[in-house]
Amino acid sequence: MYETTLKSGKKILSVAPMMDWTDRHCRFFHRQLTRHALLYTEMVVADAAIHGDRERLLGFSKAEHPVALQLGGSDPDKLARAAVIGAGFNYDEINLNVGCPSDRVQSGTFGACLMKEPDLVARCVKAMKAVVDVPVTVKCRIGVDDQDPEEALNALAEKVFASGADALWVHARKAWLQGLSPKENRDIPPLDYDRVYRLKERYPDRFIGINGGIREESEIDRHLEYTDGVMLGRVAYQNPDILTKMDRLVYGSSEPEPDPFAVINAMVAYASDHIARGGRLSHVTRHMIGLFHGRPGARAYRQTLSGEATRPGAGPEVLLRAAAQVAPRADVDAA
User: Fold this and answer.
1) Catalytic residue set
2) 3-class DSSP assignment, residue 40
């Protein structure tokens, strides 16, 4: 995928792996909004993939493709085993987390703290590349703590590309492992997009994607002038309507943008199946709160989902009742 993208000059738009957010229900919902964007799982720890409930942790709908599995770990052998398991589930890519700053991740000696150990990251990538045929990629920061981002990011990129990594997705912020919470690490360290642009100049024949604080279509256009791909994070979750623009903006699609009301109907069918298998409506609807962001009736929609979808026995009709309170786009445009 990445080699083809580079040769063709095309670009990639992806939705970032986000803990507690990008589960299988979220990804199925996002796929209704964009046919082409690359979707990522939440981070799955290698040990969990090896020893845990694999269907619960790794299972997904075929409709989610293209979809990548993000793994967390620092043991090359365990990551290789987990990568094989992920490939067996038919993921389109295996991604290694070298960017998460949470205390829980640090205690396992992986995530952003691996920025300090590029040789170990390289061994991890090499071990995974040796056992799977799908792309193996890395998502990282520009550095951590007192590291010089010029030296730290160059060192990591050099090592992982030499070990066979197919792409490097860079969150254009440092992570401060001491003194800042994971939430603060998403906002307080300043963004340095130019640092990622310079990395792309250094590696013109390697795929470099950019992530961090990107919220507007105009920003996406600008970043794609200097990098090979853009990864959207919280904006895709909080205002998912932005995804309906991406197939046209990034992939040049001439197909009509998805209609949110048609998306509601698709999610009603999906939620019905999930409930029939023993799930709860809120497992699905919690990801859909922002669907009608900015439209008349959006507040009533949100209130209905938040108040009714969590009740015991709630059914998919709650989704229809919530959506019925939102003005169709044609009515809004005519007003």
Assistant:
1) 100
2) strand
